[in-house]
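Chapter summary example: a protein plus 4-nitrophenyl beta-D-glucopyranoside.
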Amino acid sequence: MVEGLEKKRKIEEEWSSIYASKQSLTRADFPPDFTFGVATAAFQVEGACDEDGRGPSIWDAFSHAPGNICDGSNADVAVDQYHRYKEDIELIAKLGFGAYRFSISWSRIFPDGLGTKVNIEGIRHYNNVINELLDKDIQPYVTLYHWDLPLNLLESMGGWVNEHILKYFAIYAETCFSSFGDRVKNWITINEPLQTAVNGYYTGVYAPGRREHSSNEPYLVAHHQLLAHAEAVSIYNKKYKDKQGGQIGLVVDCEWSEAMSDRLEDRNATTRRLDFQLGWFLDPIYFGDYPETMHEKLGDRLPKFSERHKELLKNSVDFIGLNHYTTRFVCHATDNREDNDFYRVQEVERIAEWEGGETIGEKAASPWLYMVPWGVWKVLNYISMRYNNPPVYITENGMDDEEDDTSPFHQMLDDKLRVSYYKGYLAAVHQAIKDGANVRGYFAWSLLDNFEWHLGYTKRFGLIYVDYKNGLTRHLKSSAYWFLRFFKAEGGKNLKLD
Ligand code: PNW
């Protein structure tokens, strides 16, 4: 198939002429109040899995069950940030980032998830982290839920498939607002509800690894996450926001989808694809219901919102967090895969490679990740157009290298491909801002190499290399130095990006 290639080359040509004018971009070219940060998530970095009263999460159980993690590893120790947070925060400060997005482990606060007894040791730990950050002038951006559900909530009530979970999430969220909100001014309720729905309940490659009821559970799980988000925001707005003066949002993930051709059926398929990623979560918030395309394709499989829920969800964000990594071409497709197949229902096909070997962009290590800088420019403009230009933070953006213990150390540290990824993607963010998109901040994923879910430690997303064989020591990669220069050039504008 060669369809799409001509279009791809045209877009690349347009993009390269824009990019040519952005070769010496520095921090000073972004608005002064624009936030630059780095991101991690508790389960991927903390370790200390049974210390200080932490209860088990679904990811502990999932990663310990044979066959779920490709290198047979787990995150019992991960990169030990629980003990090394001071060193890591020192590194964030040194590099010049002004914000750190991290997540709180729910089962450190409520070990069995039930919300009856707060674990003081958990509160103490995050107090220490937050105070250390503020001490170094780094703003905490705190995610309440980044996939590590207390195991008991899965075992005793089925986790996200059960509506009762809303109550427990609300208690947990409120405990965090009241304990940390005097110092935390930026809250994220849930990270990527899409991935929990699809990979937790359709492909089964993420915890809790369910596939059995994939024709309806993903939609139910998404529904309950949306409602849990809305309940938490309503508590925040009613009881804490005025007093504490912070903001709260939801993090969604979306690859960009580019129509394969100008044919109506391909353009419609592209809209559907975006609806099944972004509209699924943002339409209920901005328009009060799921996208029409989802109603059409799913019928009764799509849960319904009550009037109270619609009210609660409406405008329940101060900002959108966008995790963005990659892009696909999309065309209309009907094939005869299973009826409950997630993509079959959408009637779309996603294309990243063509016969003859041309790809949509350079490949990273994760099989789904291609480097396509113009995609972030397009997705930001799409969000601005569809949702009336809401404030957006890019809460994750990055690429990974394959773990390779045969490569010399210096080669692993000299991550040229990552430097070119950040250079390109930041230029594209800059262009979107110039076009008028209301982008407020940007977080690189990730601060350091870490436990990449079902791919274990085989992928390295960090700006900082973690030496797993030598005491988890941290070493700056070229990309970390690149960011350092990008920030240092502020005002001077005399430093080149590369
Ligand atoms: C994000 N996809 O997940 C998560 O928020 C991080 O915890 C994770 O480490 C990071 O991206 C890198 O994978 C995603 O297949 C996982 O499109 C997969 C996709 C997108 C985001």
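Key point: Residues 41, 44, 191-192, 195, 253, 255, 323, 325, 368, 396, 445, 452, 461 surround 4-nitrophenyl beta-D-glucopyranoside (CB under 6 Å).
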